[in-house]
């Protein structure tokens, strides 16, 4: 059986909008999701897991089950309801109380400043396509560094690629725009610049603690050995993985990334603007990231595709319904013999190993890594208070094994945060896609430990992947 280091963090991950509920309480300002979900009419982010009121019980559960790190995010619009300007003291107090509870239970908080929830006013003005939002984000971040001095681990953004692609390429996040590659690239770049500006402020002001960014990194493999498929995988990977790593650790885009952008933009008649001053900030920040957070659930097999863009998002758990074909990039396909979840997420743990070794090789000054999300969405069955989630345990085991192998191969990974601590609301899937160690009855808000919670506790206590 493989092991993990003695000082390893066995964490659980959450996000404000997916866990807190109370979207209109405590002086919180609106976010674009509120209206988007209401119009869609499938599900809402209330009550979610009511973390706003239940946090003492959730943090106590962390302690009880060997979860010694809690990843959570601050809802920007609880602090600045309008995005800028007046501070909502009730929101500030709420997070102080959460951090105090973490301290009391010996659980280390890892705090993300932005997890898909830009305040509505700024969102409606173009979100990160508008440079005013970048300025507002920098001010909000600085406010948090000054205010929440009890926090030692900060992340600027959660998942810049899914923000850009879900908002402007796939249309599953507000504002629901599809196939706009220009906006996708612009959003990626602007958020990376905002990240760099925040890193530089954090370091210039010598705020205590550590800071990094959380990227969703899903590497692409060619579906076959053909040159065409290899090229399609290269393009898809360049846009969704290499772009972010280049921006984070080089402070500019490598020739490979620029070549891919050129091809993708030509095929889609798309354009973007990168300013010289952006690269000054990015280069300055590129050696100042204390860590990289990686969210990794799956990878993709890609084959060449030369038709018009077509996508179908499987947000219902009807296996086999996903369609992902993007003009000028490629088509993501399933591979014989490679399992996938009901939501068509490919289970390929070797992908995590490959990714970690690639970062070590290509960006050697990455410093250290935390796996900030990994887990399995599953239709958990609740029977007499018992939830036997064996497929989830199997999933976690194979991924943790690959992680352990990567550590043995010299990659500096210091912790792992399982998504999710308890069942939470899922952005484009609602409430039947459960990830938690703790089952949540969303009506009563009662928590029930799943089989996986007992398994994780044992792994955390013994540092052995059983
Ligand atoms: C990541 C997000 C999380 C969470 C998770 C699972 O992309 O950071 O917020 O939602 O994925 O995704 P989903 O809920 O779509 O299954």
TrEMBL record:
Broadest EC class assigned to this enzyme: hydrolase
EC id: 3.2.1.85
GO cellular component, one term: cytosol
Protein keywords: Glycosidase, Hydrolase
Pfam hit, one: Glyco_hydro_1
Domain of life according to the entry: Bacteria
GO terms, biological process: lactose catabolic process via tagatose-6-phosphate
Annotated GO MF terms: 6-phospho-beta-galactosidase activity; beta-glucosidase activity
Active-site residues from the entry: 373 (nucleophile)
Pathway noted in the entry: Carbohydrate metabolism; lactose degradation; D-galactose 6-phosphate and beta-D-glucose from lactose 6-phosphate: step 1/1
Catalyzed reactions per annotation: a 6-phospho-beta-D-galactoside + H2O = D-galactose 6-phosphate + an alcohol
Family statement: Belongs to the glycosyl hydrolase 1 family.
Name this polypeptide is given: 6-phospho-beta-galactosidase
